[in-house]
Each structure stands twice: as structure tokens, then as C-alpha cells.
Design a protein that fits this description.
3 helices, 84% helix, mainly alpha, 94 residues, 0% strand
Length: 94
Amino acid sequence: MNSILLGVWAVLQLLDVATTYIGLASGKAVEVNPVMKLLMKRLGVGGALAVKAIIVIGAGAFLYAYPAILAGVDVLYLGIVVNNLYTLHKAGEL
């Protein structure tokens, strides 16, 4: 079960990065996460995404031991990805 939840989490992380990048690159979306916004301002988009990747790997290792929390995080990121897709659709990017 943990492996499935972690796999879902990894896919959602990739979808979050991809949809965020598309929205930012098109100029039709803005980053609303204040931490990522600050990282992007200081490190650029690529640098911020590299930092996020490092954090995601560490978080995945931690969350694997806590399936109930991992399931909750999966639901949270599903909402984020759906919101990103909706924003891109509304902006005519999908």
C-alpha cells in the first residue's frame, strides 16, 4: 500500500511541476505558494524547481513510513494539480 501511495505522490509532484511550469512560461498563471514564489524570485524557476526536487525526495522518504499522512498529502496535491489544470484550461493553454 505504501508503494502505491508513494507512486501516486510522485506522479502528482511531477504533474504539479509540469503544470506550474506551463502556466508560468505562458505568462497566464502566477505562483501562489509563497515559499516557491520566494525561491523563484531568488533562484529563478529552474533553481526553485531544483530545490523543490530535493525537498520532494526527502519528504517522500519520510512520508513512506506514514501511509495515513501520505494519503492526505496525495489528496492535497490532487487538488493542487486539478486547480493548475483548471487554471491552464481557463487561460486557453489546454
